[in-house]
Write a structure and sequence with these properties.
single chain, alpha+beta, outer membrane lipoprotein receptor (LolB), chain A, 13-stranded antiparallel beta sheet, about 25% helix
């Protein structure tokens, strides 16, 4: 073997070791955020939500748990997702597999996803709101930085995501004291977070199910700038997962001047209460193989 080939192999080996180490550090930082959700506990009694919310939450909870301030309330709820996302109106849909943990007793979540751009080319993304701070970070193969967002607009946007996705975490509707409610009409309720200027509206259908969320404005990143943009999402395909009766499909869109721009859609495949927090990478080691292969 020539010296040139030997040097090339040595360099490639060093680069591989660096890539593995950087990915490991990224995964450890995600794990710390997931662990931090376990410390988010209520310090006072929750506010009783409007009847629309209360009745829907009670119907959605497992049997014998549908009451305010339940002692059986979990501290964290985890969902598993498959879906696809695009970055522009004409952009292609990119498939992903994701795991998301929700804090129940205070606002907080960690969403970690693997996007498959091409064979052997993946981007790992963490989208989170922990201790009042929002974070969005993406890395090629979990090691090479591609995007990172933080600051006031990110804090607001991530809190709004938590509020909108309470539909997947009915426990929080009854047990999170930092949620504030305003009933707007017979089918619409607005929820705000105590930690920032974020408001999301819930719209219920004729069957009393939560079918749509909306917001007058939510921060949207365009060419590196944060632009307040109308935002809405729809939920459907209600089913029982982990004992909860919740929608299993959702689609989220920006409302632009020339019409809706759907940019995210996904399906929930599994739900767990107070799951094991140990993970070896950005996806949990006990994730269904069917999720990874879709």
């Amino acid at each position: 073997m020539s010296l040139r080939i030997t040097l090339l192999l040595a360099i490639l080996s060093i680069l591989a070791i660096i890539q593995v180490w950087l990915a490991r550090q990224f995964h450890l930082s995600i794990n710390r955020q997931v662990q931090a959700l376990r410390t988010l506990r209520r310090d006072r009694q929750p506010i009783v939500p409007p009847m629309l919310i209360h009745e829907w939450a009670v119907r959605s909870l497992p049997a014998n748990q549908g009451r305010l301030h339940s002692q059986n309330c979990p501290n964290v709820v985890r969902i598993y997702q498959t879906g696809e996302m695009r970055l522009s109106e004409k952009g292609r849909w990119i498939p992903f597999s994701a795991i998301q943990d929700f804090a129940v007793q205070q606002p907080g979540f960690v969403w970690r996803a693997t996007f498959r751009l091409f064979p052997l080319i993946t981007i790992e993304v963490v989208d989170s709101y922990v201790n009042g701070k929002g974070t969005l970070e993406g890395k090629l193969w979990g090691s090479i930085p591609l995007l990172k967002a933080g600051g006031v607009s990110t804090d607001k946007g991530e809190l709004m995501r938590y509020l909108a996705e309470l539909v997947f975490c009915p426990d929080a509707l009854l047990n999170n004291p930092l949620l504030h409610w305003r009933e707007l009409d017979e089918v619409t309720v607005e929820v705000t977070g105590e930690e920032g200027p974020a408001a999301v509206r819930f719209n219920f259908d004729q069957n009393g199910n939560l079918g749509q969320i909306s917001a007058a404005t939510r921060p949207r990143i365009v060419a590196g700038q944060s632009i307040e943009t109308p935002w809405f999402g729809t939920f459907s395909d209600y089913a029982v997962l982990g004992g909860y009766y919740i929608p299993t499909f959702g689609e989220v869109s920006w409302l632009l001047e020339d019409g809706p721009f759907p940019y995210w859609r996904g399906r929930i495949t599994r739900l767990e209460r107070d799951p094991d927090v140990r993970m070896t990478n950005s996806l949990s080691p006990n994730v269904d193989q069917s999720i990874l292969s879709t």
